[in-house]
Amino acid sequence: MRLTKLVLLIPLLWLPFGEPSAAELELQPVTAKVYAIVGELGNRSPKNLGNNATFGFVVTSAGVVLIDSGGSYRGAERIHQVIKQVTQQPVVTVINTGGQDHRWLGNDYFKQQGAGIIASARAVADQRARSQDQLIGLTSLVGVEGVAGTNPVYADETFDESFTFTLGDTRFEIRHSGHAHTPGDSHVWLPQQEVMFTGDIVYVERMLGVGSQSNSKHWVEAFEAMAAHQPRHLVPGHGKATTLEQARKDTLGYLLFLRAAVAEFMDNGGDMSDIGSIDQSDFHYLLNHETLAGRNAQQVFTELEWE
Ligand SMILES: [Zn+2]
Questions:
Q1: pLDDT of 251-296, one tens digit each?
Q2: What separation in Å is there between the alpha carbon of 10 and the centre of ligand 1?
Q3: Among 181, 202, 207, 305, which is most exposed with the fewest C-beta within 10 angstroms?
Q4: What's the CA-to-centroid distance between 2 and ligand 1, angstroms?
Q5: 9-23, 67-81, 106-120, 216-230: least confident range
Q6: CA 269 to centroid of ligand 1, rounded, Å
Q7: Which helix (H) or strand (E) holds 30?
Q8: What is the DSSP string of 142-158?
Q9: Which of 26, 16, 32, 17 is nearest to 205 (CA)?
Q10: What's the predicted TM-score (pTM) here?
């Protein structure tokens, strides 16, 4: 009798956590001393601790620079574990590429490790404006235990458009060129290695999200400013490190398609209630399209009404 109960309980206990391996962070070497940490492409969950995005780090001769601190305190700790597989050097600088939760809610952890944090002033303003909503959303998806210890901590150093620094042997050029997925998105360019970290300016493999905090028109411009560097290696905000070609296809291609398709729909007198009739099947190869395609079209519709 007891045994039967136990056997029934085990699958129930595992259920909310999904496949054990699905949420592991994957370490992906990009080029010498440069790495991507690839989180899962789906939503935040108790298993991934809010790390449903791609992060990156660079091992310089004077310590580690981390690009984006993860979606929670415990998520940041997990990112640090991955870094420690490569180097015992401390994380001395953290760059937040934007205001989305997984770009910055791990700041407190790395600050406690002694890191300084850099972000655009617009990203910090966005973080401040949305921190409570983000924590509420995160708690509902990751759970009280997963979110434990997560406190909003903001950048020590902010900039308006660009910020350049050299740590040890490595030069970093951060640029905020406009409102993209979030108001304060920046890219991080390593001119010596020709590596580009894009944050949420680039999504590959999965469909990007145009939300109320996004601006699809300026997102296109932010993409072009990033692409003008012709990066040899590109670490996206979501998906594995890749090429500029794939970023053009999965992000720029989709944004341009969506804006044109919604504009045509409106020109033909289309009503918001019928927005689902726009055919987005050319982009059904991107994960999460079932949940995002319609919402993205709705958001662009609202934007175009005001353009
Ligand atoms: Zn993101």
A1: 999 999 999 999 999 999 999 999 999 999 999 999 999 999 999 9
A2: 33
A3: 305
A4: 45
A5: 9-23
A6: 33
A7: strand 26-31
A8: H-HHHHTT------SEE
A9: 26
A10: 0.92
